[in-house]
Write a structure and sequence with these properties.
Blueprint (H helix, E strand, L loop, with lengths): L2 H17 L2 H9 L4 H10 L2 H14 L5 H7 L5 H15 L5 H15 L3 H14 L4 H13 L3 H14 L4 H13 L3 H14 L4 H15 L4
Helix pairs in contact: 1-2, 1-4, 3-4, 4-6, 5-6, 7-8, 7-9, 8-9, 9-10, 10-11, 11-12, 12-13
Length: 220
């Protein structure tokens, strides 16, 4: 990587910050940088280049860049961390084929609409077809949780994490399942895992402190 690469990307990023035109930022970046170059800049570039590359990956990359953005969740710069958290969520929906993504988007809509039985049925069909599709498991976990089937939800969260080890949302969800199952120590470990993946989860950090105090209190 050379200084010119840094400078051009940062210049594009600064124009985006001034204009808010994400389309122009994507076009200008995609024509000059490969995904591999953006991944290297996101990990090893100076601060502004890391910010710009992290934003770009969140906008134009697919699930193959998950590990790069997952590592950026722990970057020393808060701006990079925030961009990585926003971008990686979008990356999780960009796995699989066009048909898989279409079906995933339908699962998300059904979950938002509270149609959890449909989600469980359709997610199960998707998982049987593409068992490596992490977000299919995650959406079914959400539906199981809302249907108060906390054991199956926790199992699906675990499977999500096995397929996508950066899925801090599944770690949080699994912790909530164990709270419902009255297993505070298991919940605590899940929340700690989520914080290791994404140190910016302040609400989870507070939950860890509260739960740890509750578990350590002497019982009468």
């Amino acid at each position: 990587m050379n200084r010119q690469q840094h400078a051009l990307l940062v210049e594009n990023y600064q124009r985006y910050l001034a204009s808010g035109d994400s389309g122009a930022f994507v076009r200008q970046t995609a024509t000059r940088y490969t995904i591999g170059t953006l991944e290297r800049l996101a990990q090893f570039g100076p601060r502004d280049a890391r910010r710009a590359a992290t934003l770009a990956l969140g906008l134009i990359a697919d699930f193959a860049s998950n590990a790069t953005l997952g590592k950026s969740l722990s970057d020393e710069d808060r701006g990079v961390r925030l961009l990585a958290e926003n971008g990686i969520r979008d990356l999780w929906y960009r796995d699989g084929t066009v048909d898989h993504r279409r079906r995933l988007n339908n699962l998300i809509r059904l979950n938002c609409a509270g149609q959890f039985e449909k989600v469980i049925r359709q997610a199960t069909a998707l998982i049987e077809e593409v068992p490596w599709f992490a977000e299919g498991w995650n959406q079914r976990a959400i539906a199981y949780f809302q249907a108060c089937d906390f054991r199956n939800s926790a199992n699906d969260c675990q499977q999500t994490l096995e397929l996508n080890p950066y899925h801090f949302g599944a770690a949080v969800g699994m912790g909530q399942c164990y709270l419902e199952l009255n297993d505070g120590w298991a919940a605590l470990e899940c929340f700690r895992r989520a914080i290791r993946l994404n140190p910016g989860l302040e609400s989870v950090r507070l939950q860890i402190d509260h739960l740890q105090r509750a578990l350590e209190e002497p019982k009468d």
